[in-house]
Amino acid sequence: MRQGLDPVIHPPKRLAAMAILAHAQDADFSFLRKHLEISDSDLSKQMSALVEAGYVSVTKHGRGRASVTTYRITKPGRAAYVSHRQALERILAGPTADTDARPETPTPM
To answer: Taking the model in full, what pTM does it have?
Structure first.
């Protein structure tokens, strides 16, 4: 994706989930749902995309209503998150002399 942004992480709900996971050892489904303020089905969809990309691992304990689903960021997920965050920071910082330099137009003789 343009300017180093990761298309898997870029959607706001996924980016927010990755930010939570990057700062925690792990987080369970209900914690993420509460903090992201989204429905069960939406969270499930967003986390499935992150799991499929290999950015998050999932562990399920128990059965039925007593089951607990826990998510943890993986090493590739952390690297992708850090890279995506750096790309966002570069965008937010605005153009620099290096990135904004335009080649000079030759003057006619």
So the answer is: 0.81
